[in-house]
Specification:
The structure is a homotrimer. Chain A is α+β, with helices and mostly antiparallel strands. Chain A is built from three helices and eight strands, in the order E-E-H-E-E-H-H-E-E-E-E. Chain A is elongated. Chain A starts with a strand and ends with a strand. Chains in contact: A-B, A-C, B-C.
Chain lengths: 137, 137, 137
């Protein structure tokens, strides 16, 4: 079995932003040099997520508005007694989930025609890490 | 290591429907002929999900109503400027997540007594694909 | 490839409770004696979840309040026609997801500095099982 792990520093310009990381994941699979396998793509922070959906600007805006509706910024989260102000980002991380597993078949990411992989930043403008771990043979 | 990948075309009668796919996953594990392993069960579309819960008609109806409450159909999603009308289905896919990993132990799906695997269609009445990828030995 | 599976009985004092299981997962990795691998941590019940976030009492209270806001206890879930009263716990299980996959690199859980693994009980005060399955070499 081959194992290959890449770490990427993400540093978004905006506080909240979705970053298409499909090519990063593809590069890790190529570096691992496998034909069959699985790739774990996982945020290493508790205010970020990783998800699979559509590279379409409208739906990405809808996702961000929806995240704000279901997990809004609020002053009075108990978490803020620690001095933090990012309680909403923790909730958004749960809502979107912090990881996906991507199948690799015949040497390629085995995604559907519209599926793209996104890093979801909910508390950005600072350096945060993303893990891509490939296993396969 | 053995790798076995099956693709299934799903085509639900209703626009929104939960399909119990536990037997499909079990068949893939049998075809893979493994004793220990893991199975990735993943929707290949961005308006579908996969989840594990209970085969009980009431809770399935509750799930669908809950999905509509938290991720309602609306005319004014930005995604609809593309001509699509399925923005809510994208949100519901995020809410339920699009995949699960099922453990295999001693040749069997290692599920709890009530756990069943479901494909969640939120924009159906057309052909969509489901991936089941088994790894193990 | 090495495979190692542990089952833990969880029996929370409170009906709803988050239990930090990071050490349990670490013990399974040590028992598996691997350097590179992945760990599936999965609830075996349909009213529990598993997630990764922060060991901070305030945010854990915020999570529980948020779960109640988005997936509230209600008398009139259709699931309750079976005699059950835990429909909300099923919805909360979907919201938090029932499993995570944790990477193992150089013999250690490859988590970010604040990431801890939690079992999320939404219908407790009784014995329920958690599965930890390690694969690696």
């Amino acid at each position: 079995m081959k194992w290959h792990t890449d770490y990427h520093w993400m540093n978004t310009r905006k506080k909240k932003e979705f970053v298409n990381i499909t090519d990063l994941v593809r590069q890790s699979v190529e570096a691992a040099d496998i034909q069959e396998g699985m790739v774990l793509v996982s945020a290493m922070h508790i205010t970020s997520g990783v998800f699979v959906n559509d590279e379409e600007p409208g739906i990405k805006n809808d996702f961000m508005e929806w995240a704000e509706t279901l997990a809004p910024f609020r002053i009075d989260y108990q978490h803020h007694r620690t001095g933090e102000t990012n309680g909403d980002a923790h909730l958004k991380s749960i809502l979107f989930h912090h990881q996906v597993v991507v199948p690799v078949t015949a040497g390629k990411l085995d995604l559907g025609p519209w599926q793209q992989i996104f890093y979801a930043e909910f508390d950005g403008q600072r350096r945060k890490r993303l893990l891509i771990k490939v296993m396969g043979e």
